[in-house]
Design goal:
It contains no helices and eleven strands. The protein is mostly beta strands. A hairpin with a 6-residue loop joins strand 5 and strand 6. Helices cover 0% and strands 51% of the residues. Strands 2, 4, 5, 6, 9, 10 and 11 form a seven-stranded mixed β-sheet that branches. Strands 1-3-8-7 form a four-stranded antiparallel β-sheet, with no helix packed on it.
Length: 127
C-alpha cells in the first residue's frame, strides 16, 4: 500500500516562508513524478508544482512561479515544496500525490493524473 504523508504547514505572515515535506512509502519512489496541489475552502483542488521521477524537470502553476520551488530527494523518498514570499491567497490545504505513470515522459499537472493522496497540511498566510 502506497502512503504519502505531508508535513511542514502552519501559520505565517504575508511575505514569509514555509517548507513543506512529503514522505512516500510503499512504491519505488524514484520511478514516479510527484506533485503538490492545494485546496482552499469552497474551491476545487488545484495544481501547484510537480517534479519528474529524476528531479530534472519541474512545472509550476503561474500563480506560484518565482516564489515556490519543488525538489525531491530519492534517497529519502521525500519531495519538498519551498514556499517564499507567501501571500494570503496561498492559504489552503496542501496535498502531495504520486503520478500514475512510471517514468512519465511528461510532468503531469492535473488532479486525475495523480493517485495516493496524503491527508494534507494546512498553510495559513495572514495579511
Amino acid at each position: 500500500q502506497v502512503q504519502t504523508v505531508e508535513s511542514g504547514g502552519g501559520l505565517v505572515q504575508a511575505g514569509g516562508s514555509l517548507r513543506l515535506s512529503c514522505a512516500a512509502s510503499g512504491r519505488t519512489f524514484s520511478s514516479y513524478a510527484m506533485g503538490w496541489f492545494r485546496q482552499a475552502p469552497g474551491k476545487e483542488r488545484e495544481f501547484v508544482a510537480a517534479v519528474n521521477w529524476s528531479g530534472g524537470r519541474t512545472r509550476y502553476a503561474d500563480s506560484v512561479k518565482g516564489r515556490f520551488t519543488i525538489s525531491r530527494d530519492n534517497a529519502k523518498n521525500t519531495v519538498y515544496l519551498q514556499m517564499n514570499s507567501l501571500k494570503p491567497e496561498d492559504t489552503a490545504v496542501y496535498y502531495c500525490a504520486v503520478d500514475r505513470a512510471m517514468y512519465g515522459l511528461v510532468v503531469a499537472t492535473t488532479v486525475n493524473d495523480y493517485d495516493y493522496w496524503g491527508q494534507g497540511t494546512q498553510v495559513t498566510v495572514s495579511s
